């Protein structure tokens, strides 16, 4: 395990190609203030610059109670509209970095995942949660709307009706319900969260990671395009994979009845 950088409110380490970014403000249930959002952005820059030795990024929260319980209400309470817009842009900047990383990202959800926390988790490629986790967009209970992407990313994950229901009610749903509506991909017992996330990460790492990165990119970009344009985009990236050494290795390995040894080139 190696530390990849030192930040005030975020921990970042790399363990054999699987990096973990931990939001580390357990006393306030890992609430996102501007300093933490800045740290997340800086940590993501480090992850991107280590693309040779970081293959997968896991994002999680410190402590057993909370992934992230939202934006920091004590910071927001006295903010004016300009300050609110700046905080929102800071979050968008960091969350867009997650989506644009070449590495695959997994949210390891260990507890309350509310407001900005659900918006952070929704920016990851997949979500694995414990059966104790609770999810919600409670912004309207505070007299505001989701401002870190929740009206858009939650809607794209669960559909307009469910997103409107969750946002308008402002109540929490449990992990079973989150799984049922497609908000999370896996539910595990708390002690199995880290092993399950590692199992998924290791399975992905056996594959051609240029191909994994391209698939992630075209799925995300294509989702907002007309189908025919998105299909053309897929053809373009599919053709590009044939210019990689990984494609030669993957297909040769199949024909030679051996495991592929991808170099990510
Ligand atoms: N901001 C700041 N502090 C927070 C916080 C938040 N979002 N969530 C929890 N905390 C703090 C609490 O104030 C408390 O601090 P003190 O010990 O100093 O009093 C500490 O964390 C522990 O929290 P609780 O005592 O409330 O713990 P609990 O077990 O009774 O309740 C909870 C847990 C249900 C998650 C509750 O803390 C809660 O409802 N938190 C707020 C959730 C919320 O509304 N999130 C949305 C924020 S708005 C947003 O995110 C906007 C956006 O779109 C970006």
UniProtKB/TrEMBL annotation:
One Pfam family recorded for the sequence: ECH_1
Query: Which is a GO BP term held by this UniProt record?
Result: fatty acid beta-oxidation
- Any one GO molecular function term: hydro-lyase activity
PROSITE patterns per record: ENOYL_COA_HYDRATASE
Taxonomic superkingdom = Bacteria
User: Which UniProt keywords are listed?
Assistant: Isomerase, Lyase
- By its UniProt entry, which InterPro entries does this protein fall under? ClpP/crotonase-like_dom_sf, Enoyl-CoA_hyd/isom_CS, Enoyl-CoA_hydra/iso, Enoyl-CoA_hydra_C
Q: According to its UniProt record, which protein family does this protein belong to?
A: Belongs to the enoyl-CoA hydratase/isomerase family.
Q: What is this protein called?
A: Crotonase
Whose protein is this, by species? Pediococcus stilesii
